[in-house]
């Protein structure tokens, strides 16, 4: 940086023919400008300027050097302008990692609008239920369910991620409708497999947590398939309400009202989070994406 500053100072002196005018033009002290150029000359082992009490003249080698460094300075200025332009408007690759079902059901329907608003952003979208480390995985934004992470990221709560038990009318007609949580142990279970293993079915009764998981019929990390199995009458599935809401609305499955409440974890505060590195919010493409997704998805 010192050499680049010296090159700019030297060029301005050649153009203005004066240390004073060059310093005024660059808004720096004349003494600082002069010292930088002296240091430049020492590093090159050549006198670039002739100094007299009245004028400053460029030497022969100084003129050659001036001509050659103009290309360097011009190229640098174009590069600087390119970066300023990039930082001034949303553009470039935006890497988003989202949970599979959330991406299919919630995120994808929003992307046409986002691309219309920001046509210079190129979306790089990956689907995964695995946890992401933003810095390691080169992800700008991640959408994950669970708890606010301990990682040094900004976590914006988008919506609740409450799991509910559902089954089809055909399944219930053939197998009966469970009323108490422990009744579930006699039913066929469709279990979602997390990175830590299948979600258990749990309830809290008399201050104790009980495992009330049904008989495992199907275990998968594909919640779309599990939901289809539930619609087809294969068994009972614990699934987030948002992921099955359409099937509830059209009667393909129904929510089971079971006491005490059945959960997949002892935590009572599961949610969907939008994650990003705090310092990245100043990057236009990240900022507009975060603001857009929060405005379209976040529950009141």
Provide keyphrases for this structure:
300 residues, alpha/beta, 5-stranded mixed beta sheet
What does this structure look like?
α5 (100-117) links the parallel β3 (92-98) and β4 (121-127). The protein has helices spanning 2-16, 19-26, 30-44, 60-88, 100-117, 134-137, 169-175, 223-231, 241-249, 284-297; strands at 49-51, 56-58, 92-98, 121-127, 141-146, 154-160, 163-167, 188-194, 197-198, 202-205, 208-211, 215-220, 236-240, 254-255, 271-276. The protein is 43% helix and 25% strand. The longest helix is centred in the N-terminal third of the chain and has 29 residues, at 60-88. α1 (2-16) crosses α3. The chain is α/β, with parallel strands linked by helices.
Which structural class matches the secondary elements? Answer: alpha/beta
Q: How many helices does DSSP assign? A: 10
Radius of gyration, rounded? 32 Å
End-to-end C-alpha gap: 49 Å
Q: Proportion of β residues? A: 15-25%
Give a count of the beta strands, DSSP E runs of length 2 or more.
15
Mean pLDDT: 88
Low-confidence parts, pLDDT < 50 over ≥5 residues?
none
Identify the overall geometry: rod-shaped
Q: How would a crystallographer describe the biggest sheet?
A: 6 strands, mixed
Order of helices and strands: HHHEEHEHEHEEEHEEEEEHEHEEH
Helix content: 40-55%
Produce the secondary structure layout.
Blueprint: H1 2-16, H2 19-26, H3 30-44, E1 49-51, E2 56-58, H4 60-88, E3 92-98, H5 100-117, E4 121-127, H6 134-137, E5 141-146, E6 154-160, E7 163-167, H7 169-175, E8 188-194, E9 197-198, E10 202-205, E11 208-211, E12 215-220, H8 223-231, E13 236-240, H9 241-249, E14 254-255, E15 271-276, H10 284-297
Parallel strand pairs: 3-4, 3-5, 8-12, 8-13
Antiparallel strand pairs: 1-2, 5-15, 6-15, 7-13, 7-14, 8-9, 10-11
Helix pairs in contact: 1-2, 1-3, 1-4, 5-10
